[in-house]
Structure formats: C-alpha cells, structure tokens
Write a structure and sequence with these properties.
With 471 residues, this protein is α/β, with parallel strands linked by helices. It contains 15 helices and 20 strands. The longest helix is centred in the first third of the chain and has 23 residues.
C-alpha cells in the first residue's frame, strides 16, 4: 500500500483500492488522509511559507523542475501505462499526455525565467517627481489543488508545476479514481530535490476532508478542475481573501459554414469528439451543419465512429477506452435513449459494449431541449444538427449557460471572422476541432464553465503577487 506524500509520520486514515475502469481489476491500494492529515499538511505548508528564510530561490526552483522533467523523460513508458490503466485513456493518447506533461514542466521553467515585474511610470506628476517605482514577483501563499480524473498526470502538472515555479507550498488532492499518476509526480518532484513540505498529496474520497482543505483560511490560492456543481460550491466556502481558479466543462459547439471541406472536418471532429471516449471538457459535442449536407455529413461521421477500435486502454491499438465508472455508462445510455425517443435519428452506436464501454455514437437532430443537447455528455456521443441560417446556428450554439472553446470549419475568411466575433467562447478554432489545446495557450471557461484563466504561464501569474517598491 502506498504511503501518503505528507510531512510527518501520522498513520493513514484508511485505504482506497484503485481499480481499472476497463475491467475492475485492482491496481493498487492507497493510504487515505483524514482531517488530522489536512491539519498537518496545512500547518507545515503555512509555516514554511511564513518563514521567508526557507523560501526556495528562483535558481533552486528552476533546477528542481528541470530535474523533474529529466526523470519523467526517462520514465515515459512507466508513466504512460500508469495513466492508461487508472484513467482508461488509450495507450497512444496517454503517451501523448505524458509527453505534454513533460513539456508542461519545461514550460513552467520557461515562464518562470521570463517572469518579471514592471517599471511603474512615476516622475510624471509633482508628487512623484524624483521617485522610481518597480514591482517584483512573490508567491501568493499556500496553494490547494483539487484535480479531475480525465488527464491524471497532465492536469496535476498544470496545477502543481506552476505552484512550484511560483514558490508556493502546494497541497494537492487528486481525483479518487486516478490518484496514482499524481502520487508518481509528487515522488518525482521530491526525487528532483523539492523538499517534501513544498508539495504534499492528500488522497481522499471523503467530502468533509476535501472541504477542510479547501476552506482553510491559511490558503492563498485554490485551484480546481472538475464539475461546475462542485467547483462553484467550494468557491462559495472559501475563506475571505483566498483567490481561486475554476475549470469546469461545457458542451462544445462546432459550426460547419459554407464553403467547407467535408473530409478534413470529418477527421477532426471524429478525433475531437471520441478522444478519451468524449471525457474532455472541450470535447466536440454539438455540430451544426447546413441542412443540405447535414445528413450526409452525419452518416459519414457515423462510418468513422463505427470503425474505431474500442478496447483495453493498455493496448496500443485501442482508439476508444472505457468511461471512468460504470454508472457513467448507464447515464450516457439513458441520455441517448431519451434523445432517440424524442425524435433523434440514431446513426451508429447507442449501446453498451460492456459494463465499462459505450459504443461511439452519432445522433442526427436530437431535440434542442434533450439532456444530450443541453448538458455536458462526457461520453462518446456527437450530435449533428441541421440549420438553414448561420445566425440561427450561432444562436443555438450560444443558448446554453456554459461557454468554453468552440470551432468553425470554413474556407471563407470573412465567415470565419463573423463566427469568431459572434460565438460565445474563450477560444475559437478555425478548421481545427474544439478540443485542441497547447499548454502555452490561455484556457478559460466562461459563464458557468469556470473562473479565471488556465494554461501554465497564466496559472503561474495567478499564483504570484506583484510587490511594488517606491524609491
């Protein structure tokens, strides 16, 4: 059984069996944390933050992160199989995630080395004449990071690497379904030279324990990746003065606008919708196609969906793996059944392949008020809707309380610019699927989809303050 990555030797509160979402086999038993572990972690983290003599210098942080990236690079295969086994993302995509995570650690170093304050333009009024002002960066305080299951290594890197770069002690709570990659990364940081007090891991599936971590007044920053229901609830309980960033989900719209090329759109949309069985916060979910071509496009998309290989995530040939829990399979099935009963045309899929896997599914013209049209499906389902007027398609795309990334496929630059200006999204992809992301990009959910801006350079900025000196 794995130990807690905590300062001190307090015995574990309990244990958690981590199982494969594909076949239910036990992968490892993990020691879990209780309220006393939360108190120990926050006490030690806050103490080291309050003692400036213990702060890590910028060169120290750079060295630790570079060392961590080197260790990860030597363990790509091990980290890939670990992420695939616990999270269910197919091997090939999990390997991409690990490579991205390594790049994310390097990016944290690059962002830190180029991270400077600014000169304040004093001397422009009689009161400031002869004075000089400038700012420098300091860590904001103790960071609590609560993460999601769907990218078990890379999401942790997105939250923890900027905290280390910023000089913030961080206490991280991974998803109870996928704690192994987080524990591995924390171990790597310690092996790379980070003193354990600067990064501690709490594994728990107890809501009271998690709430005790998040609501403590000793925090400086709260980083959350997960459902909107939980994220907004936790934000409402933050102590006064605690800053936060929330990353939730959406129901990403894609608009096909004349003139557009079917083949590249089909390839991109199939990847963007069925990647990780649709368990991505910006996964393609709603595709709006001109009425004259919608049915043809949907049928071609269904042919691609039916050709995808569904199977065990550790198999390099698998293209679509399981959903994270069997209850999610039942939920997705119920939503698809509801849409079909309401008039949607089922072009492929629409069935359970096992207790853990759901067939890649394409629906044509589901009702606009069906769950599959209004809520984040987080499953391997793409809906295609026919439209007669581009403004109507944009209005339907904008009709939900969530807004994150979107996409438009067209060869006409003026149409692309029009959709870009008109659609509710923090980022619009042109002839690329909505799930495209590079870790240097700003990544922001709007409205109910989140608060603040993700992306490693932006998270580093959020985890620091600018302190001014006037001479």
């Amino acid at each position: 059984m794995s130990d807690l990555r905590l300062v001190g030797d307090r015995p574990a509160f309990g244990e958690l069996a981590v199982t494969s979402p594909y076949d239910g086999r036990e992968l490892e038993r993990i020691a879990t944390a209780g309220l006393e572990h939360v108190e120990d972690a926050l006490t030690s983290a806050y103490a080291v933050f309050r003692d400036r003599s213990q702060w890590l210098s910028v060169p120290q942080r750079v060295e630790i992160l570079n060392n961590a990236a080197a260790i990860m690079s030597a363990r790509v295969e091990e980290l890939t199989l670990l992420a695939a086994s616990e999270g269910g993302k197919p091997y090939a995509d999990s390997k991409v995630e690990v490579v991205r995570a390594i790049d994310g650690v390097h990016l944290a170093v690059e962002a830190l080395r180029g991270d400077a304050g600014e000169v304040v333009p004093l001397g422009t009024t009689p009161a400031t004449e002869g004075k000089i002002g400038f700012t420098q960066k300091e860590p904001i305080g103790v960071v609590a990071a609560v993460s999601a299951f769907n990218h078990p290594l890379n999401l942790i890197v997105h939250q923890v690497a900027p905290a280390v770069a910023a000089g913030c002690p961080v206490v991280v709570k991974p998803a109870a379904d996928t704690p192994l990659s987080c524990l591995a990364f924390v171990d790597i940081l310690h092996e790379a030279g980070l003193p354990p007090v600067w990064c501690q891991c709490l594994v728990t599936d107890d809501n009271d324990v998690a709430s005790a971590l998040v609501t403590d007044a000793r925090l400086g920053f709260f980083s959350f990746i997960g459902s909107a229901r939980v994220g907004w609830m936790l934000r409402s309980k933050l102590a006064p003065g605690v800053r936060c960033a929330l990353e939730h989900g959406g129901a990403a719209p894609v608009i096909l606008a004349e003139p557009w090329d079917a083949e590249p759109a089909l390839d991109a949309i199939a990847k963007g919708g069925f990647y990780h069985a649709g368990q991505v916060c910006v996964s393609v979910q709603r595709v709006y196609a001109p009425s004259a071509r919608a049915a043809e496009f949907a049928k071609s998309l269904a042919e691609r969906a039916e050709a995808l290989r569904v199977g065990p995530p550790e198999d390099p040939e698998t293209e679509v793996g399981p959903l994270i829990r069997q209850a999610e399979v039942e939920r997705v099935a119920a939503w698809v059944d509801e849409a079909v009963a309401g008039g949607a045309e089922l072009l492929c899929g629409g069935k359970r392949l096992s207790g853990s896997c759901y067939a890649p599914t394409v629906l044509l013209n589901p009702p606009d008020d069906a769950k599959i049209s209004t809520l984040e499906v987080f499953g391997p389902v793409i809906c295609v809707y026919a439209y007669d007027n581009l403004d109507d398609a944009i209005a339907r795309a904008n009709s939900l309380p969530v807004a994150f990334q979107a996409a438009v496929f067209t060869r006409d630059i003026d149409t692309a610019k029009y959709v870009y200006r008109s659609i509710d999204a923090s980022a619009v992809m042109l002839n690329i699927h909505s799930a495209f992301r590079d870790d240097v990009m700003p990544f922001a959910g709007l409205r109910e989809s989140g608060l603040g801006v993700g992306g490693i350079p932006y998270t580093l900025h959020d985890m620091q303050i600018e302190k001014m000196l006037v001479l």
